[in-house]
Amino acid sequence: MKTFLLAILCWCFALVSAAQKPTLQATRISEPPKIDGDFDDAAWKNSPSVSMTVTYLPTFGNQPSERSDIHVVYDDVAVYVGAYLYDSQPGKIAHQLSARDGDAITDDFVVGFDTYDDDLNGYRFLVTAAGVQVDQRVTQMNNNDRTWDAVWASAASLKSDGWVVEMKIPYSAIRFPSKSPQNWGLQFGRNINRLGEYDLWSPVDPKEAGIINQWGTLENLENIQPPVRLSLTPYLTAGLQVTPISYDPAEYKTEKIFGGGADIKWGINESFTLDATLIPDFGQVQSDNLVLNISPFETKFDEKRPFFTEGTELFNQDNSGGGGSPQVFYSRRIGGLPYNYYSAFGEVKEGESLISNPTTSKLYNATKLSGRTNAGLGLGLLNAVSQPTYAEIRNDETGDVRTYQTNPLTNYNVIVFDQSLKNNSKVSFENTNVWRAGISRDANVSSLHYDVRNKQNALQLVGFANMSSIFDPQSNPDPLLGAYYNVNLNEIKGKWSEWIWHELITPGYDQNDFGILYYNNQMTNGAGFSYYNQEVKKGPFNTANFWFSMNQKTLVKPMEYVEWEASTGGNVTLKNFYSIGSNIYSKPFWYYDYYEPRVEGRKYYHYPFVYSNLWVNTDYRKKLNAFFLVGFGEAPGPENPFYESELDLNWIINDHLAISPSVYASKDFGTKSFVDFDEEGNSIFGSRNTSTVSNAVNIRYAFNPKMNLNFRARYYWSKVNWFEYYQLLEDGTLQPTDFSGNYDINFNVFNIDAVYQWEFAPGSFVNLIWKNNILQSDDAGQDSYFVNCDKTFSTPSSNGVSVKVIYYLDYQYFRKRSS
């Protein structure tokens, strides 16, 4: 009996202990450690240490395999982190070099700070065993932003019994409140690559919702003051751009590029930072992956411009439940495709040629203000002004060139208020506005987000309510108003999660001037569940999960059936670190497509279909690893199969050189979709066969942690062959027609992005870039892959070479030197 009571007492004590977050007392020092990777400073010897306590991967809850000795100290200038990471097999410590913020097969150590101790936002500073830096902003739902960059110091060195990392993180690199004493959220993580093991200091239970709310605490930081955060980063750019303006015969336009600008960062106070870019130059960002798009919806591209990716987490309010995501802020709209880009083609008269029609608009400037008060109120303000854009049209006989304005002077504005609440809840308001000079279309969208959780962080009510106003005097003297709301009820605690959701979008809702949305006039109801187990103790698996979701959609006006959707999938990670998964997506019943006809109010009665895939990811710890996918889709009525396959390789040749080739191929047989309009304006559909092949290779060579070379080449080919035509009837069915014409499409894209980067001083870079682009398109739909390769590489290409020098000037550095 005593033994039983003792066991119960120990069990209860264990539960209480597990619920308590670990703490570390902050140690103030008078002599800062030297950041050299030796770990022999008095600061480390005279401060308390902690170690990793639990594994997060490959399974949660085990004891770490190796010992760690971690210290945190601080002074008036910075916080310092030192870690001696012992290893019983030091010769097997992975230390592949990479570019800053790059991915590599390497051991690493990371420290996380939640400087406002609000469980919502934090910083992560990571150093690999090769000495490469990675810095991130992280949010409560573990959204990591690697594009955020700070200037800080670190050193790493391999030892006979492990490896050492030392960091100096100046207060000018982070934000924190002006009070004493203060506590910060704190987390340490260690990746041991050969074991596939990720260790943590403060346990982060995967069954619990949230990440930062499970961090430990750095206690009693005293008498530290937020410094003046002021930096200027001027840059100079020079280069040469050669662009074809005609193809038969080939004729080129050569432009010399010379320019400059500056980025300014000013910490207005301890909470808020102003970022501004003057005369920005984004010509050196990586090329987009262009594709052939014959759908009724635009292609969405990732944002790659640093100013619009760094520190923008406040502006990207998202819906973490089921259903849609109200992305009212899509930063690619800023300086994106001119509003009247396509109108320029209709302006070309007989005897004229369109010699220039820019696909982007240059910016005069862009500014953003962001931060969070001590009361948990986040404020974000972003403003950008784009220049007027003009197409150039040449008279073929006289050579005279006239211009046509494709985009007026345009102002983009976003404002966000985000208030954190108890129990990791929050509410936020976001407004976007687009103003175009002259009698042009303007737009305004407001969005209210909410995320409310109970005290146990087990139930979540999350959603949003949006309203849009479109002002377009050329088409309608009255504003067009619309609304969009979404509500989700989710169970988020435990291995099982369930959710139900409902959303409605009115016919007049439109957020596409600054955001992105593919549909409106639609109501959706859905439900789903998922299972995730990261604590598998027996059997062949490390982790296992699966999910199922389904929804039903109707029009709002008129209230008519649209479709049913169902999807399911799952994956497991094996003990040998192979991952295997499968996904199934289906529209199991006949449904109506209101967008494919390309005419408002018309519909297409679409046959049901199902798609499934199977994928395998080999052991990511190995120097040669691969991802392989095969997919198959079928519509049982018309029997039009779809096949796809993908293979991605990652080959680490040595600690400096890595090669990553990939290939994707798909074939779609007999799909029916929109082709064109006939002379009466009726929608004509056709049956088509579509083939797509995409090849890419990425070669990365790192000379050292501060200097690297990246080469990326991609060739994409897609062709469409039409073989039957139909007229779309009023009830949505198709009727054969004698419509004729060659609508075959043959589309080829080839591009190269080669980038040499050298960080010659903290925050200062020299970038040398070569970009090559070829775009070839015709109606020779019967040509083979190799014939298309030959045609593509015989097509005149656009080539650009440029050098950009960026120099970081920090107020604290000059203040220190002057004193």
Short description:
This protein is mainly beta and 819 residues long. 5% of the residues lie in helices and 54% in strands. The protein has a 24-stranded antiparallel barrel.
List the helices and strands and how they pair.
Elements: H1 2-19, E1 23-25, E2 27-28, H2 42-45, E3 54-57, E4 68-74, E5 78-86, E6 108-114, E7 121-128, E8 133-139, E9 144-145, E10 153-159, E11 162-170, E12 182-192, E13 197-200, E14 216-221, E15 230-247, E16 250-267, E17 272-278, H3 343-346, E18 352-356, E19 363-372, E20 377-386, E21 389-395, E22 401-407, E23 410-420, E24 426-436, E25 442-453, E26 459-472, E27 476-491, E28 496-505, E29 522-533, E30 541-555, E31 561-574, E32 579-587, E33 591-593, E34 604-606, E35 609-617, E36 624-634, E37 642-652, E38 657-677, E39 683-704, E40 707-728, E41 734-736, E42 745-761, E43 764-778, H4 785-793, E44 798-806, E45 809-810, H5 811-818
Parallel strand pairs: 1-14, 2-4
Antiparallel strand pairs: 3-13, 4-5, 5-11, 6-7, 6-12, 7-8, 8-9, 10-11, 12-13, 12-14, 15-16, 15-44, 15-45, 16-17, 17-19, 18-21, 19-20, 20-23, 21-22, 23-24, 24-25, 25-26, 26-27, 27-28, 28-29, 29-30, 30-31, 31-32, 32-35, 33-34, 35-36, 36-37, 37-38, 38-39, 39-40, 40-41, 40-42, 42-43, 43-44
Entry keywords:
9-stranded mixed beta sheet; 45 strands; single chain; 5 helices; mainly beta; Immunoglobulin-like; 819 residues
What does it look like?
It is globular and about 90 Å long. 5% of the residues lie in helices and 54% in strands. The protein has a 24-stranded antiparallel barrel. Strands 1, 3, 6, 7, 8, 9, 12, 13 and 14 form a nine-stranded mixed beta sheet that branches. A five-stranded mixed beta sheet has the order 2-4-5-11-10, with no helix packed on it. It contains five helices and 45 strands. The chain has a domain at 20-221: Immunoglobulin-like. With 819 residues, it is mostly beta strands. A hairpin with a 2-residue loop joins strand 42 (745-761) and strand 43 (764-778).
